[in-house]
TrEMBL record:
Main location: membrane
InterPro entries assigned to the protein according to its UniProt record, in alphabetical order: SLC26A/SulP_dom, SLC26A/SulP_fam
Lineage top rank: taxon: Eukaryota
All residue ranges annotated as the SLC26A/SulP transporter domain in the record: 76-462
Upper classification of the organism: Eukaryota, Metazoa, Chordata, Craniata, Vertebrata
Organism: Nothobranchius furzeri (Turquoise killifish)
Record has Membrane as a keyword: yes
UniProt membrane topology term: Multi-pass membrane protein
Subcellular localization, as worded in the UniProt entry: Membrane
Keyword vocabulary terms for this entry: Membrane, Transmembrane, Transmembrane helix
Listed name of the protein: Solute carrier family 26 member 10
Length: 468
């Protein structure tokens, strides 16, 4: 044994207890024991140019990675990936706004501001932020509880405008409070909590939420004008309402939904199976939106067959607007849940792609990035945002290298906001509902992991069906 250790001496180490280690090598406390408390505080609080630069690079990561950006090697991939994701953000932003129970234009706002802010403060090079179905659905439940949908209202009346203002005020208040909670967590350095967010828990929650999103979109796909159910067993309440009102299905909207699903599902499957061969995925969502808008306008489906359309989408930049501060006490409990879900999904995605590409994620900095994104965005009529599954996957597969891809994503959305938005006036809401449902493909596929989930944690397996 002695001879073996002499042969492999670099790999043989003595076994130390904590006391023996301190005796042999000393400790940090011993070396600093002679320093007075005042000297320690003075050393900690000393300000210098180097300390300020280090703090700036640490808290604003764009100052760290942008000077080291490899222009010739990375710019093409970031440009293509950013433009591809930006095109996808347009239909998804409007579609997820329906889940939030606000007008589609606010989904476009939420697809712009958080993207820019995360590019500056985030550490995930392949993370795409913006609207996320699960977070949008949870926010929509809060909005419906405080500002329920009236049975009848003229969309062009002053009451309708006031109603929309109340709804986005509540949604923005949720975003503000969510951002403040994340900033408080950052101040307390609670990023380590991401260690306890196991993959089975995240999968269980997002898979169960996929059912809620899909069921909530049935009424739009069938052309039913039904109030949105909230509270306990809302999934079953919504399903019961849809079944009771099947006789009132709008045939035109049902046909639109069937055609859209017949196009979206196969093309998205092709994108998934041929992702290595395709330089960029086929932008089937935006193509569907453009074609459906043109057909509806040319055929006057909204007036002839009572097809519900998106309506007026204002052009231009949103004016700063205060969230509904008076609703903060009422939304506090739900907002805590929304915050943890958004953070869990965002950090999980960031870590997955960081491990894949060999770089590190800083959970505390992610708290700061998403906290600033939600806080600042809330003053521009945005609802809560987070990292998104579908667009993050597309961003990475399309060749994105750094956060600079967010610049090109935001430019696409900005062009739509300033110039193209009003052209979507005749877009049927049934098309957006179909986009919502097909965007959940990855979450539904997680049910293939049920046997593994049962082996890992029977408790998480039971929680999955409890949430459904």
């Amino acid at each position: 044994m002695v001879g073996l250790c002499s042969l492999w001496s670099p790999f043989c180490r003595n076994i130390y207890s904590e006391d023996r280690f301190k005796q042999a090598y000393g400790s940090e406390d011993d070396t600093r024991g002679s320093l007075r408390l005042r000297d320690k505080l003075a050393g900690t609080c000393r300000c210098s140019k180097q300390a300020c630069l280090h703090l700036a690079k640490e808290r604003v990561p764009i100052f760290s990675w942008l000077p080291r950006y490899r222009l010739k090697k990375w710019i093409l991939g970031d440009t293509v990936a950013g433009l591809t994701v930006g095109i996808l953000h347009i239909p998804q932003g409007m579609a997820f706004a329906l889940l939030t129970s606000v007008a589609p234009i606010f989904g476009l706002y939420t697809s712009f501001f958080p993207v820019v802010l995360y590019m500056i403060f985030g550490t995930g090079r392949h993370v795409s932020t913006g609207t996320f179905a699960v977070v949008s659905l949870m926010t929509g439940s809060v909005v419906e509880q405080l500002v329920p949908t009236p049975l009848e209202m003229n969309s062009s009346s002053p009451e309708a405008a006031d109603f929309e203002a109340q709804r986005i005020g509540v949604a923005s208040a949720v975003a503000l409070l969510s951002g403040v909670v994340m900033l408080c967590m950052f101040g307390l350095q609670l990023g380590f909590l991401s260690t306890y967010l196991s993959e089975p828990i995240v999968k269980a929650f997002t898979s169960a939420a996929a059912f809620h999103v899909a069921i909530s979109q049935l009424q739009s796909m069938l052309g039913l004008r039904l109030p949105r159910s909230t509270g306990t067993f809302s999934l079953f309440k919504t399903l019961a309402l849809v079944v009771e009102n099947l006789a009132n299905t709008n045939t035109a909207e049902l046909l639109i939904s069937m055609v859209c699903l017949a196009v979206l599902v196969p093309v998205k499957e092709v994108n998934t199976r041929c992702r290595r061969r395709l330089r960029t995925p086929i932008p089937v969502e935006i193509l569907t939106v453009i074609i459906a808008t043109g057909v509806t306008y040319a055929s006057s489906l909204n007036s002839s067959y009572n097809v519900e359309i998106v309506g007026h989408i204002p052009a231009g930049f949103p004016k700063p607007q205060l969230p509904a501060f008076h609703t903060l006490p009422a939304i506090a409990g739900d907002t805590i849940a929304i915050t943890f879900v958004g953070y869990a999904v965002s950090v999980s995605l960031a870590m997955i792609y960081a491990d894949k590409h060999g770089y590190s994620i800083h959970p505390n900095q992610e708290l700061l990035a998403h906290g600033i994104s939600n806080t600042v965005s809330s003053f521009f009529t945005c609802f809560p945002s987070s990292a998104t599954l579908a667009t993050t996957n597309i961003l990475e597969s399309a060749g994105g290298h750094t956060q600079l891809s967010g610049l090109f994503t935001s430019l696409v959305v900005l062009i739509v906001l300033l110039l193209i938005g009003p052209l979507f006036y005749f877009l049927p809401k049934a098309v957006l509902a179909c986009i919502n449902v097909t965007s959940l493909r990855q979450m539904f596929l997680q049910f293939q992991d049920l046997p593994e989930l049962w082996r890992i944690s029977k408790l998480d397996f039971v929680r999955l069906f409890y949430r459904v």
